[in-house]
Amino acid sequence: MPRKYQIHAKNADPRFPPVGKYATVEFREDCAGSCRLCVKKRCVYGIFKDNFLHWSSVDTPEFLYTCKSCLRCVEECTKGIFSLAVNPEYRTLGDNYWTANIINSTWSQAHTGKVPVSGAGYRGPFAGEGFDSIWTDMSEIVRPTRDGIHGREYINTLVELSRRPASLKFKQDGSLAMAEQPILEIPVPFVFQEPDFGIFSIKQILAMAMAARHIDTLFFIPPESFSPALRDYAANLVPCLTRQNLKDHIELLLRCRMIELKDEPGIETLFEGLRAVRPEVFIAIGLPLDARAADRALELARTDVDTIHFYGTPDGREASSSRPRYLKDMIREIHLKLVEKRIRHKVNLLFSGGIALAEHVAKSLICGADAVGVDIPLLLALECRLCYRCTQGKSCPVKLGEIEPGWGSQRIVNLACAWHSQLLEIMGAFGIREARRMRGEVGRSMWFEELEKESFGPLFGSRKVAETG
Amino acid sequence: MRNSELGTRLNGGSEMKLPETKLTPSRFRNPIGKYVVRRNSRCTSCGLCAKLCPYGVHLRYENYTQPVRPLDYKCIGPACEANEFYCVRHCPQKALTVALNPVLEAFGDYRWTAEMILGHWYMAETGDLPYVDLEYSLGYSGGGFDKLRFKIHDPSAYLNLPDEEIDTSLCLNRRQDGRPVKKLSLPCYSGGMSFGSTALPVLVGRARAARRLNTLTCTGEGGYPEAFRPYHDHIITQVATGLFGVREETILLAPVVEFKYAQGAKPGLGGHLLGDKVTPEVAKIRETVVGSSLFSPFPFHSVYSVEDHKKHVDWIKEVNPQALVSVKVSTPTDVDMVAVGSYYAGANIIHFDGSYGGTGAAPDIAKKNIAMPIEYAIPKVHRFLINEGVRDEVCFMASGGIRNAMDAAKAIALGADGVVIGTADLVALECIRCGNCESGRGCARGIATTDSELGYLLTEEWVEQRLVNMYAAWRKQWCELLRQYGLKSMRELVGRSDLLVHLDYLDEEERKKYQPAPRKKMVL
């Protein structure tokens, strides 16, 4: 049994007040602070403690990032002049995929390292598109069971991106007739990846690299981002190279455990040379997650590649398509194609783009991925507000380029800790104690279309509308 | 023949005696309404609006000439313009305005919308259905109950019976195993909430309401406070994995003993009471240490098979020969097998808790993702039990995301015998679903807390009456629904999925005949 893997979280306070969901509205101000029963003084959460005296000393409106919207202030104000509204800035946070809720929850996980917990039932839509149309299963009394997340049995989130030879060759005396195959294990089924935007300084890269080393996962970076400061972290770095710039970065090939090459026709001809230079290096091929991805994956699987890395869009969709499919469907297609051709066991599949929540990690694995790549959440952990101002050449409202790398690393470690804990929750309920066993385990998940057909089909016939929710 | 005699005959003598509803206003001085009525400084306190408004929005007392804040939660909004008595038009000073209350966007969510919460507050206050145009039966979730509708009824089938003669009772024991045939007056009982997670006056108030309504409430996994004893005939003792507060004595007191294997909001995860909430009283009842977090492991470590489960059931039946046994499980993909297993183990009641149900604290990832919504589980289990030939021997209860009377009726039409209610009870007590039940001092509104100050913001009497009122209003809805389909009792509705339609399964033309699913993009 492996040593119990744990990520240690430590509070890493935000540098800027996070954008909260609520704002106060006061219809008249003449009483502020003068009332013996002023609801601002009596707030259960004390959120007005610096802000009840004079109107002149209050920001208008007050944006309350710690307000829980219990609305007691609204209901108890002796004059009835107090009200809450949704903070207009909160509304503008993020976009349709990276919602304000996801951003806020990521901030708080990066702050505390804690699993988001709340009371009352689920608050969202019944079902949604993409990953939101999958429920994960749980083990009930009829199954051989396990011992709970607080229990004695160890739930292992480790996955392998090792080389996977189809067979082993032995000598007459039973000893191995080939070189021992190198093993690459990462203790969590997610790797880091440098985001396409929002990187202003080496400090951010350093924070990500430090975090990758701390939790012992990999960090995929373009070679331009490499600098001498990163030398100590080389074992956890994966440079993403091309056929053209490969020879300029021989140093990286020698230092890093894995390198990624951008796919192009005939790229496999390079493998032999690479292995000759450094036999133990793991080779990944990066390619867009588009309509040709499944066929190309099949071709590549037949070569000497170890891992195939697919890049979807930032909102978790198929790349370059007018009607893009969801990441979950793309993973299914590629995974099943390789299973069908009996070659799935030979390669590792890594998917990135749109992995926004811990549940996406688990659901990607269920669909057939070996691991997933995480990019934008790394920025969110550093307090990015996804305003995309930087993509237009404007300044960053949270000065991402000026972070202190140690602090940034802790924020990312905290996020990884929260995600790891959430994976344990889902796997615990699942009754599965090995992340590797989740791969392609769709039998332990429930899909919207199938549940509808199975439960409602006999009652109502067939669905007449396409959308899920 | 008098109507009541007819009712007595129809229901085999079990005519429903309705408990008395009583006006039980909000604890807070500014109850929230759908509309706001504002009175500006031009008001001269002439009192005309108070004379005009039949809803009592405007107050004016003799000998007091200052303008009083309007009770705007009673206002029917700008639609009132059509009425002769519209205050805004008549105000000689033009001092009044009526508008949608902007605070509505600051609470509520896709499942429990602000209007649904306000609707339940009104029911709990008055025992009647709201006259304000609140959508209290449908949420914005865009699936499940929010897309299910009862079919357009045939007006000639309408059964002209008064509410008293419509039977909404629920029989908990259908096994004929020599144990009591326990009959409740409502097709629902209250779900488990533990002492520790919820304030004592709330728990005792629920028990008192259960007694008056002839239904049940449940201890949850928190032991059996002394204050429960007078109501023990209406309190289920829950046996959960942590076995907190489970003793022979508390099993002997209970008419029904419930095994909790899993909870819908956190299936497969077990319970967790945070240290802050473990006060000396809680620790004493649970026989633990003050301030230390309490875990209920998952699963029962003595149960690894249906045979083990049967051993559990037998154990309870041996200890208390009069008790019925309920098995509460969540909704994995093989719900149907679990149901049959529980039946063969000897359970009287099989209780499925779907994944969108309430909780005092659960990881968000679990609430959203693990296990299936109850809407799917009910028809699946119902069909399977019929095919096994045992449907008539079990009482099948559904819970987890059943928010209102119509959800309950839909669940019953899908195949459940009855439903178990948790969150709606708390909403009746002015829970606003802010979701902060678990940390620090607990609920700011004094419901889910054991804090020495917050835990006593409400009284048992108030809780009892609010709940009686809400269920009285629900029963009105159920009776009207049954009458529309010519049904005399709730039992006749069980499994009548032919009376339901799902909007997504209708042709466009057909769909137009039904109320569309309310849609709104919410900021969560």
Provide an overview of this structure.
The complex is a heterodimer of chains A (469) and B (524). Chain A contains 13 helices and 16 strands. Chain A has 469 residues and is of the alpha/beta class. Chain A has two domains: 20-92; 159-450, Aldolase class I (TIM Barrel). In chain A, strand 8, helix 4 (202-215) and strand 9 form a beta-alpha-beta unit. The longest helix of chain A has 26 residues, at 405-430. Chain A starts with 21 loop residues before the first strand and ends in a 9-residue tail after the last helix. Chain B has two domains: 35-100, Alpha-Beta Plaits, CATH 3.30.70.20; 160-505, TIM Barrel. Chain B is 28% helix and 12% strand. In chain B, strand 8, helix 6 (248-253) and strand 9 form a beta-alpha-beta unit. The longest helix of chain B is centred in the last third of the chain and has 25 residues, at 460-484. In chain B, 58% of the residues are buried. Mean pLDDT of chain B is 90; it is low at 1-14. Classes of the chains: A alpha/beta (469), B alpha/beta (524). Chains A and B meet through helix 1, strand 3, helix 3, strand 4 and strand 5 of A and helix 9, strand 14, helix 10, helix 11 and strand 17 of B. Strand 4 of chain A pairs antiparallel with strand 14 (362-363) of chain B, so a sheet runs across the interface.
Distance between the termini of chain A: 44 Å
CATH architecture of the largest domain in chain B: Alpha-Beta Barrel
Specify the biggest β-sheet of chain A.
8 strands, parallel, barrel
CATH topology of the largest domain in chain B: TIM Barrel
Low-pLDDT segments, ≥5 res of chain B: 1-14
> What is the tally of beta strands of chain B?
17
Oligomer: heterodimer
Strand content of chain B: 5-15%
Tell me the CATH superfamily of the largest domain in chain B.
Aldolase class I
Summarize the topology.
The complex is a heterodimer of chains A (469) and B (524).
Chain A: E1 22-26, E2 63-64, H1 72-76, E3 82-86, H2 88-91, H3 100-112, E4 117-118, E5 134-136, E6 159-160, E7 185-186, E8 190-193, H4 202-215, E9 219-221, E10 237-241, H5 250-255, E11 258-262, H6 271-277, E12 282-288, H7 293-301, E13 307-311, H8 327-340, E14 348-352, H9 358-367, E15 371-374, H10 376-381, H11 405-430, H12 435-438, E16 445-447, H13 448-460
Parallel strand pairs in A: 8-9, 8-15, 9-10, 10-11, 11-12, 12-13, 13-14, 14-15
Antiparallel strand pairs in A: 1-2, 1-3, 5-16, 6-7
Chain B: H1 3-10, E1 35-39, H2 48-52, H3 87-90, E2 96-100, H4 114-126, E3 148-150, E4 170-171, E5 183-184, E6 188-190, H5 200-213, E7 217-218, E8 235-240, H6 248-253, E9 256-260, E10 271-273, H7 280-286, E11 294-296, H8 306-319, E12 324-329, H9 335-344, E13 349-353, E14 362-363, H10 364-369, H11 374-388, E15 395-399, H12 405-414, E16 418-421, H13 423-428, H14 460-484, E17 500-502, H15 508-511
Parallel strand pairs in B: 6-16, 7-8, 8-9, 9-12, 12-13, 13-15, 15-16
Antiparallel strand pairs in B: 1-2, 3-17, 4-5, 10-11
